Amino acid sequence: xxxxxxxxxxxxxxxxxxxxxxxxxxxxxxxxxxxxxxxxxxxxxxxxxxxxxxxxxxxxxxxxxxxxxxxxxxxxxxxxxxxxxxxxxxxxxxxxxxxxxxxxxxxxxxxxxxxxxxxxxxxxxxxxxxxxxxxxxxxxxxxxxxxxxxxxxxxxxxxxxxxxxxxxxxxxxxxxxxxxxxxxxxxxxxxxxxxxxxxxxxxxxxxxxxxxxxxxxxxxxxxxxxxxxxxxxxxxxxxxxxxxxxxxxxxxxxxxxxxxxxxxxxxxxxxxxxxxxxxxxxxxxxxxxxxxxxxxxxxxxxxxxxxxxxxxxxxxxxxxxxxxxxxxxxxxxxxxxxxxxxxxxxxxxxxxxxxxxxxxxxxxxxxxxxxxxxxxxxxxxxxxxxxxxxxxxxxxxxxxxxxxxxxxxxxxxxxxxxxxxxxxxxxxxxxxxxxxxxxxxxxxxxxxxxxxxxxxxxxxxxxxxxxxxxxxxxxxxxxxxxxxxxxxxxxxxxxxxxxxxxxxxxxxxxxxxxxxxxxxxxxxxxxxxxxxxxxxxxxxxxxxxxxxxxxxxxxxxxxxxxxx
Amino acid sequence: xxxxxxxxxxxxxxxxxxxxxxxxxxxxxxxxxxxxxxxxxxxxxxxxxxxxxxxxxxxxxxxxxxxxxxxxxxxxxxxxxxxxxxxxxxxxxxxxxxxxxxxxxxxxxxxxxxxxxxxxxxxxxxxxxxxxxxxxxxxxxxxxxxxxxxxxxxxxxxxxxxxxxxxxxxxxxxxxxxxxxxxxxxxxxxxxxxxxxxxxxxxxxxxxxxxxxxxxxxxxxxxxxxxxxxxxxxxxxxxxxxxxxxxxxxxxxxxxxxxxxxxxxxxxxxxxxxxxxxxxxxxxxxxxxxxxxxxxxxxxxxxxxxxxxxxxxxxxxxxxxxxxxxxxxxxxxxxxxxxxxxxxxxxxxxxxxxxxxxxxxxxxxx
Amino acid sequence: xxxxxxxxxxxxxxxxxxxxxxxxxxxxxxxxxxxxxxxxxxxxxxxxxxxxxxxxxxxxxxxxxxxxxxxxxxxxxxxxxxxxxxxxxxxxxxxxxxxxxxxxxxxxxxxxxxxxxxxxxxxxxxxxxxxxxxxx
Lengths: 564, 366, 136
Hints:
The structure holds 3 protein chains of 3 kinds. Chain A is mainly α. Chain A has a single domain, classed as TIM Barrel (Alpha-Beta Barrel), CATH 3.20.20.240. Helix content of chain A is 47%, strand content 6%. Chain A has an 8-stranded parallel beta sheet. In chain A, strand 3, helix 6 (172-185) and strand 4 (195-196) form a beta-alpha-beta unit. Chain A starts with 49 loop residues before the first helix and ends in a 9-residue tail after the last helix. Chain B has 16 helices and 8 strands. Chain B has helices spanning 7-24, 29-32, 36-44, 48-60, 63-73, 92-105, 155-169, 184-191, 204-212, 215-218, 232-246, 256-261, 283-300, 302-330, 334-344, 350-361, and strands at 80-86, 110-116, 125-127, 142-148, 174-180, 195-200, 221-224, 270-272. In chain B, strands 4-2-5-1-6-7-8 form a 7-stranded parallel beta sheet, with helices on both faces. In chain B, helix 4 packs antiparallel against helix 7 (155-169), helix 6 crosses helix 13 (283-300) and helix 14 packs across helix 16 (350-361). Chain C is α/β, with parallel strands linked by helices. In chain C, helix 1 (20-31) crosses helix 5 (114-135) and helix 2 packs parallel to helix 3. The chains are: A mainly alpha, B alpha/beta, C alpha/beta. Chains in contact: A-B, A-C, B-C. The A-C interface holds A 20, 22-23, 114-115, 118-119, 127-128, 130-131, 133-134, 137-138, 207-211, 249-251, 342-344, 376-378, 451-452, 455-456, 459, 462-463, 469, 472-473, 483-486, 488, 562-564 and C 12-20, 22-24, 26-27, 38, 40-41, 43-45, 64-66, 68-69, 91-96, 109-111, 113-115.
């Protein structure tokens, strides 16, 4: 179904000067999108189905929102400049966030150390000790709410939208609770606090699988607890933000990414309906902030964002009968494809970041993160981060892109692709339902196999020269006077975290901490929403590893369906 | 280098090498080289690299493998060889991992042979069992070896029992052999254990598949793993009734007619496990059942009978492999080329061709 | 027997669970007639233990963190008498790449071709096999 049209002859092959030796095209150029939709040499009115024309007669800001989430788009709501950042110690993360905000970032994302945060390990856990020199490389080491206080010190969280960390499902309840606790202590009304903790299934169970983590069924329960809690107490907080980005960067193509996004949302919303404590309409807004990827297929990526809004509107209307039009509006955060960034000739990535960012803007994104030009080399240096912000500022202020909403609306090509992607994405959605639903396809490994097949296909195209990557399999000469040294962060993160951990254990009321953990364990074993006990545990200064111990005891480990 | 064909000669040989090997303990593995006798001596003294090399020799077959075979033969058998088999994805590795934990808690050292199929197209393989056994990755009392089935005829059936003997002789009395129960070879390997555990999952299709693959006959203990999933109880009942049915049949290892006469005969128990659960639900009971089967084998004398039968089976495998290899060798001869041409021209029939092939292989005529 | 597949241990040194890259390499190696022993995320100690017990012909490391672990693994392998060659892939800074290459380790940063990886694996495994022959 995702088959690339194969050319049959070598006739008409363009010159391959500069390609890697041995990398020669095996087929004639196949004119398709990256997901395999065939492309004609030109498009006309007949290429757009009638029912699709009908949809796009609705202006931006009106259902089905194909043309945009808001009527005036960037005139009234500029996209948020939102870059992932964090490494080393809490202080390092704070300085980088301040740096980005000073340079024009309009929201901030906290990235936590993958080993300790994603795995819920304290820094003295044997798995971490054995890799102590890696600690702090992929994000800041955050042991407890105390470290959240340090990171957020001097940052105006009342008015700045934040990603509080917790991209990984089992980490999200703790990360969210820490952030909210800091806000509460500052006297901020939680009902007005804006942000997200993400808690993404595609990252957790599809793209980046922890060595030890709670199984998807229990992760689903966490997310439903988060949705319930936020709907009641933090209505401006996006409790879970589905990051189809992670599905795409694992290998799903454009329509599979969309189909998986809808299937994932359906799993959450079905769960909410089954609990019958809240109406789907009440939670729709909270679940309707998602993350998609733009990569290097310009028009398909634009069409994908448009199709996503239209599909979301239909999902909520048809499957859940949500009548409030505003509750059917999807907001999209776009991250440009990290996997599109190349190791060789890294400055070329500035051009790639600009193109992918442009696609996001033309597709009507609400917020945008542009991958650093050093993405394939290391975590972003200060300069790479600055460039990501500058690219966005050039798009926002220099290129006159923001005056008109949905500038490509009515383009025969873009409308045709939008319609075709939507059709194929629904087919993929149905395929997932036939496999038992989104979570079932994670448990069985079906979705991993699909992603794997997509990734292999893309790799083959580069290997055999069907797809040109400048500086990688073609045009490898480089006279750049700039050498991009990999930024390596700090080297003292583990030592300093060990000191903080010892001090924390010494100073806190250990009986209160133990009691809070027991209460949390009780909640995990019952049907009580875990967020209340989690907030109490955070207040009692429990550590990330202690939370992990509770989860591991109660839920065990996911039986990962793939070998890697 | 090593003389004699029986145990005593093996010992003599070892005596000869002891002297060198004491000096060899201070040598690097590289300096020690790959001489089977000195490797064996070092491996018995606890040198893991040497044991790793011995197993490589066994796996590659050939003259060195025969030397290893002769060396270890005198050292007697493992205390208990347990086969764990079942369909891909049944949870065998996780189950094995948890069994290792139980055995280690009892103080015994454990050897594990984790066998996965080679790709029939490329001959390559991805062997991923160690991932799920990472809980014992650095335990000195555990030796895990991954093996691919490697298409060649009977190769695995030969290499596995040999590898089991090597592990046993080097201080691992309990040995778990994990295979994917999909083909005859794999089932045969699993059945070469003293106790064969067959793993299925909830869903009646699985028990039918197990029956088809001949796993029903091979099983001494059944496990319905992933028992927290729907249909576990039904699958258990299906297996029980299939076992009831097989009481009426005449073939198979459980000798049903004997079971009818002899109340002490073994009927495979059907257990339920959830190996991935935090507490490893059902694993303790599984190990108890495996141990009960071993005691049953010992008490009835069946252990010796089975092992004797297996040794004969091994000899048969050796012979078949030799014949197969000789037939293959003969394909390079002129005689083979002539018989091929004559067959193509229909001047001779299959029987005459077979006789000519025999002649080309040097196998004596019938 | 020369057609016996060479054995390669593949492991991830960090606790970063991105699996797509390493599985693509593992499959390419399987297609190229290698036996790949997949270890997943493992510590230096676990990697050395598996390399020794399995007597592999090559160790492939997927790096998701800092690189000092590579030198630790190589040193420990040599200390245990193993000459097994090591190749490394993953997100690796240019300065690290230079350093590792200068100590004879093959390095494959993002964008490396599978063809190159397989060819290098083949060369290193053949070298391994020769060393074993010599040792005999």
